[in-house]
Amino acid sequence: MRKGVLVVGAGVVGLTTALELSNQYGDSLSITLIAKDLPGDVSPLYTSPKAGAHWTSSNSKENKQWQLVTYKRLKQLSEIPESFVVPYPLYQGDIVPEGCEAPPFEEPWYKDLVEDYEFLGSDPKKFPQVANLHVFKSYSISTTLYLVYLLSQCKKNGITIKRHTIASLQEAENFVLANGNKPDVVVNCTGLQYNLLNGCYDPKLVPVKGYVLLIENTLPYQTTFKHPKLTPDAKDGEFLMLFPRAEGGSVLGGIYDRNFTRFDTSIDADYAGRLVTKATTYMPELGRTRDIKVSTHTIGFRPERQGGARIGVDINNRKIVHNYGNGNSGYIESWGAAQSTVDSVAQVLFDNPKL
């Protein structure tokens, strides 16, 4: 009889984990995924559809191997139109206003591992006041459509999908699967909602607010520009990013706000105006400020776990395997983190993880 696995959560982490479980152990497992929110839903704590999502990294990032695994998988997915993963050059650098000194350049850890990496230094015409400019081949992900694609692949692989809300992980352990049995392992991919479950609390898990604009304008490349020092056009936690999407238009952002005081999803006209002004200043190919056509304001709350994502077998209950807390790296680490989670599940069920 096949072992039963219950995956809880249908964000990018839950869907990718369920799919990777079926890819590696589909003949040995009966997999069910349950979630309060499914692709197509809109909810303040359903974070994955609200993400901008492209592949990038930094030297301070942990879990670099997870990110590299994901980069390679995104390359494969970019050959499947239905995935809505598209390759674009990604330009990165530091915004340095006139009269200011650029910070020292530190070569990215991945420069020899990604495709088409090149250090440019600067390109004043294309990106004025941007220093330490470098470029490589990256991938842009249309999040809402990508989640639908992942869900379709889960169904194609025979994974049972059910909309169901649990109040605790103990309730998940007692969930009756399609075969009439309880799960042998529960995989917790609940993100921020973990701390809302009865009997569950992780003091390291905190929400981080993100805010992006979906604009009708587009460019044939992506950008991620940091503010090494705060300037009049940038507040703490803000950066400038733009990446086009396969279905048209672009994502323009962003902010990494750890200091927000409430779960407010109302429009911030001051922030949006500042963001549009920065975009046209440092990416003049977009045109003038009045040329930017904003279609949607998207606000979400990332599940960041201080010290890194929690992935592995629960030390107090071997029937629970966790995968949550990736913060702004949910998509960037998704396939690598899923592999590690699958190894933990295999260790519990078969005492023989597939490495």
SSE topology sketch:
Elements: E1 3-8, H1 12-25, E2 29-35, H2 64-77, E3 85-95, E4 118-121, E5 130-141, H3 143-156, E6 160-163, H4 169-173, E7 185-188, E8 205-215, E9 222-226, E10 238-244, E11 250-255, H5 269-282, E12 294-305, E13 310-314, E14 317-324, H6 334-350
Parallel strand pairs: 1-2, 1-7, 2-6, 3-9, 7-14
Antiparallel strand pairs: 3-5, 4-5, 8-11, 8-12, 9-10, 10-11, 13-14
Helix pairs in contact: 1-3, 1-6, 2-6
GO biological process, one term: D-amino acid catabolic process
Binding site for FAD: 47-48, 190
InterPro entries: DAO, FAD-dep_OxRdtase
Short summary of the structure?
This protein is α/β, with parallel strands linked by helices.
Question: What does it look like?
Answer:
One of its GO terms (biological process) is D-amino acid catabolic process. One of its GO terms (cellular component) is cytoplasm. It holds the Pfam family DAO. This protein is α/β, with parallel strands linked by helices and 355 residues long. The protein has two domains: 3-49 and 144-204 and 306-351, 3-Layer(aba) Sandwich (Rossmann fold), CATH 3.40.50; 87-139 and 205-305, D-Amino Acid Oxidase, subunit A, domain 2 (D-Amino Acid Oxidase, Chain A, domain 2, 2-Layer Sandwich). 22% of the residues lie in helices and 29% in strands. The protein has an eight-stranded mixed β-sheet with strand order 4-5-3-9-10-11-8-12. α1 (12-25) packs across α6 (334-350).
